Amino acid sequence: MKYTGTTYRPPPEAFTPLLQVTAGCAHNRCSFCDMYRDVQFAVETLEQIERDIIELKLMHFRMPRVYLVNGDPFVLRAERLLEVVELIKKHAPECETVSMYASISNIMSKSDDELIQLRAAGINDLYVGVESGWDKVLNLMNKGHTAEEAYSQMERLNRFGINHRDMYILGGAGTGNGIENARKNAAFINRTKPQMIWFGSLTITKDTDLWHERENGNFQEATAREILEEEVEVISLIELDDVVFLGNHPTNTVSISGNIPADRDHFIGTLQQALDSGNAGDLDRVHVRSMI
């Protein structure tokens, strides 16, 4: 199998076969992220992809689902993505779903007809790094899209039956802004209706743009208490009838996972218990976090 650099995948895809179709990240300019800074973006050849599919098939025998890596494989032209799916189904005809990370700009680059074709081919369950529904935070993170652009693209995915699993960052707005960020995020989630929501906490790694902003005094991180309060607020405001909520990223102080609204009270109670029983000195400081 060929994998270039560190390979990342969402926790729900822990047991899904991973197939490299790109190396690195096409955007690679998010101010908080250094995941692909040491990998030049490249597109894998179809010949290498087919060799890896054959090897995956030997390893897994049945592959009803395949996850494409790395950073944002949905950047590929629709024609190339369809070729990849065709190769997967050539060797694993039982494959029903091909999933991957996708950015808002990736979705924007696809026509309506292309999205329809991709969904018909089995591409579904796109993991989208929304990060926030607040333009102030999106600008700070250098995401390359606005909240309204993100909404427009999510609406297109919904229209053509492509499920999206959206990722948000707790603490992304910095100290003093958590509650407002939670309200913006909840409003955005209620508009876009994802099938899954995944929340992690802001992690600033050395030499990223946001690290320099913090070192220069232009950004102040939220405390552990503020992040927990932000999470309570967003959970309380989500109005969807049935959505998977994952707050189990390793960067989070408290791990929770389940469904909203079914587990809402349990989530809030668990987070509130951490707020009420935690050491004040510990909660009121900025935690040093790791992405791993």
Write the layout of secondary structure elements.
Layout: E1 18-20, E2 22-23, E3 42-43, H1 46-60, E4 65-69, H2 78-91, E5 97-102, H3 104-108, H4 112-121, E6 123-131, H5 135-141, H6 147-159, E7 164-170, H7 178-192, E8 196-201, H8 209-215, H9 224-237, E9 243-247, E10 256-260, H10 264-277, H11 280-283
Descriptive notes:
It is a single chain. The chain has one domain (11-283): Aldolase class I (TIM Barrel, Alpha-Beta Barrel). Helices cover 40% and strands 17% of the residues. It has helices spanning 46-60, 78-91, 104-108, 112-121, 135-141, 147-159, 178-192, 209-215, 224-237, 264-277, 280-283, and strands at residues 18-20, 22-23, 42-43, 65-69, 97-102, 123-131, 164-170, 196-201, 243-247, 256-260. The strands form 2 sheets. The chain has an 8-stranded mixed β-sheet. A hairpin with an 8-residue loop joins strand 9 and strand 10. The protein starts with 17 loop residues before the first strand and ends in a 9-residue tail after the last helix.
